[in-house]
Amino acid sequence: MNILFLTILNLTDIAERGLYTDLMRKFRDEGHRVHIICPSERRHKKKTSLKIDHGISVLHINTLNLQKTNIVEKGIGTLMLGRQFLKGAIKYYQDTKFDLVLYSTPPITFTKVVRFFKKRDGAKSYLLLKDIFPQNAVDLGLIKKNSLIHRFFEKKERKMYEISDHIGCMSPANADFVISHNKHINPGIVEVNPNSVEVIATAGVSVADKEKVKREYKIPEKAALFIYGGNLGKPQGIDFLISILESNIKNKDVYFLIVGSGTEFSKLQTWYTLNSPENSKLIANLPKNKYDDLLKCCDVGLIFLDKRFTIPNFPSRILSYMEYRMPILAATDLNTDMGKIIMENSFGLWCQSGDLEAFNYNLSQLCGAKDNWKTMGNNGFEYLRSHYSVNNSYQTIIRHFDNV
């Protein structure tokens, strides 16, 4: 099949591991002809261009800045994205007949592109739902419920669901939420298609390599390393993370590594500057290879979600923890089923975000059960391999289109 994938992420290297690059390589390896349209933000100062990257056609569309920019430029850029993608697709893929259009959220502004190829080529459509907007913004107080802007984006969300032949959701709770809050769509098109990766059985890191990495980042050699890696923004409930760091500032049994970037990074940076904790370090966003080298040396992976969420999120960063066979310590809202999955399959501990006593209890439980870390990590890896493999995601999608 000729497959078109639309994404807001700037995919600069198809060989690099990631949710979407892994999936696109899988489609390529199964004999499909894959075409990707993605942004090249104006900060990179590059014109719209088409290239072949590891056998996959990648069209980079020059856009406004969409990530790590002010809300005005991000909003305008996101609204313009669908029209810009469509213009580029018509110009560069005018002679290509697409059989399947894949697209992910965010954003919710690809409807015009999808509709065009459904009409022109008779293409089928599959939405990889990674973000439920605008409800997530309402939950965090960024958009007022029933305001003009809320209703505007709800209309766009509704149109995106209606144009989709199938909707793949990150978890059972996520799928149930979509069905119960969108009576206008056929429940039969909604299914579970989790975040997935190409699962690789990684070799354990040597003692010498672990010591080398710890020296590089000035981490105590015998410290039990608890790492959070990823976005540091409103969705993560950074105030609760700071309260955890404060309450454990004299805890010599743990060492917290916070790695990432985002709108709340400066708030964390200010706290670190004022408190100079000896058992914690804040590291700005690292290149993936450097982050992976650091991750290999860590013991426990941390997950945080703001307690106000009514939508069931499922952060993809858990996958790298599971791949490196690390127990998970999570603090989330009550609506996600991530905690349930972690606990029922014995690869970590969970509590409600905002409950400091419960979090610190789980922290002490993990620190007192280091002999179980290997078993918990192996449980997580096996769950990853059986449930979150890119092979599963591919089969979930392709079974709908065997006759295309």
From TrEMBL:
CDD domains: GT4_WbuB-like. GO terms for molecular function: glycosyltransferase activity. Pfam families: Glycos_transf_1. The keyword Transcription does not apply. The keyword Translocase does not apply. InterPro entries: Glyco_trans_1, Glycosyltransferase_grp1. Keywords: Transferase. Residues 209-380 form the Glycosyl transferase family domain. This is Glycosyltransferase family 4 protein.
